[in-house]
Amino acid sequence: MNIINARVESLRRAMADAGLDGWIINGTDPHQSEYVPERYRSRAFISGFTGSAGLALITKEKALLWVDSRYFLQAEDQIAGTVFEMMKIDTPSHPDPYTYLKMNLPKGSVIGIDEATIPVSERRRIEGVFQNTLVLKPMKDILDAVWTDRPALPEHEVVEVPVNYAGSSMQEKLKQVRSLMIEAGATHLLLSTLDDIAWLTNLRGSDIPYNPLFMSYMLISTERACLYTGEKRFTEQLRARLEEDLAIRPYTQLQDDLPNLWKHAVLYYNPQKTSVMVERSFGPYEKIEGREFTTDLKAQKNEVELEGMRRAHLLDGVALVNFLGRLDRENGSYTELELAKRLLDERSRNEHFLGESFNAISGFGAHGAIVHYAADEQSNAKVEGDGLLVLDTGGTYAFGTTDVTRTILFGKPTEEQIRDYTLVLKGHLALASARFPEGTNGYQLDVLARQHLWREGLSYLHGTGHGVGFRLNVHEGPQSISPKPIVAPLKEGMVVSDEPGIYRSGSHGIRIENLLAVQEDEKTEFGTFYSFEVLTLCPFERDLIDPEMLTEEEIEMVDAYHAWVYDELYELIDDEAIEYLEYATQSFLGEE
Q1: Would the pTM count as exceeding 0.90?
Q2: In whole angstroms, what is the distance from residue 363 CA to residue 371 CA?
Q3: Which tens digit of pLDDT belongs to each residue from 458-467?
Q4: Distance, C-alpha 447 to centroid of its chain
Q5: Are 101 and 20 in contact (CB under 8 A)?
Q6: Which residue, 83, 53, 109, 41, is CA-closest to 462?
Q7: DSSP code for 152
Q8: Domains located in the chain, CATH noted
């Protein structure tokens, strides 16, 4: 029996001991993080699937894994040879996990889930689906009985982001938050989301790989603020500074303090981000539900943060072009992991680089068609001969975060590859050049990136863009650009990605990604209009572009972008990369 099947059998024994007919593993942590500390990688532990999203369900008879379209190919590969079956989210043939349970388990069956990781909103949703036919039982995590060497809760050192990088002090941010609390009629605000806490306090940690976060909660009143986290994280000097405005308490003390708020307290919290475990500590006071004020404040970068993001992208552009320039000169044989490591080494040459902002996606040939492919020692393909490499990487710098994807040509391209790349580029340009009125949501712009693919009967299943944090998470809300009708208007200072693609299973993938900052464009009699400032500095893959497929306006956009990249980077890159930069940024109009 392989190790995954053995773990499932052990979990079923623990389920039987607890009187359960099913166990749900949502794969997150007590803060609803997308990426989690090793302790909470429970979905990967039980199934072997290492993607950042998905849900595992174990019943007495079945082991099922729900994943979205980004992970269909990866999940199929990683669960092969195990008892797990893949269920495809948002496809007609596969019901959602809660409907599946209702359809397939006898009335009265008891379904367990870890109370620390299920948010209040999800508990309500599940109970609404079950409608008294099944019983949901949030409880202590029975996976502890199976995962005998489960990692402890991390407690790494916390560092402070200087105000000259953050643009605003913790005191100034707390003042903003308290003003919004009073406006909403709240006396207390509970924060569970780690990036909101990091932003508000100007603190960063390293509890989660690639995410500069630390495990914590915050409870803010109109008079004081408490940070619940590991007390050994701070130097004496930093702790003394923080305690002028902030009480620092043990991570688990929140559940002791919440029941004891004064009886006339009004607690503001987000049921989508607050766990059932924490909710059980609430006292009999009034509650207000809504999105954290900090989420919206954090999304709109101030001018100092934006300047830091520009600077980070300049340094990133130097590393990217040095990497591509050396690659262009060598004409050698590599592996996927080797190329990702070489780009990391280029970034690491800069003293302001702190680490990768996510695990690099380096997929050659057919691996490029796996949207969130993660190469490992087993899958690590050789990069040689003719083919395309999808290289999606990013960096965390002292003053900003980057995320960039380039599709790199090795050898000679096929006509299909050139056509696919040019269609993706057309969509990328259409979104980057958009002008839109105040109040526009990302989903209203999404079609701009897809239109040229759709005309050819092509598409991609992932979103087009996500928010990006300031020296924070590479995925940040509330804004996004996707077909999902998420109401979060794009506002000045927000940073979003622009990353259309096309994926041909078994053949190749193509994705082009730049980061964009929302900026005010002009005010007219019809209102305020916005546009995008491009942040990313890296040439497109010239030999994959068919200029005959581009309009004159699109060619002018490519040429203008390449001229900007050249002007910004020429004096900063290594001599060995100059020839590559000169070729990659040549004007297409100049060739006519």
Answers
A1: yes
A2: 9
A3: 999 999 999 9
A4: 21
A5: no
A6: 53
A7: P
A8: 3-145 (3.40.350.10), 159-298 (3.40.350.10), 300-591 (3.90.230.10)
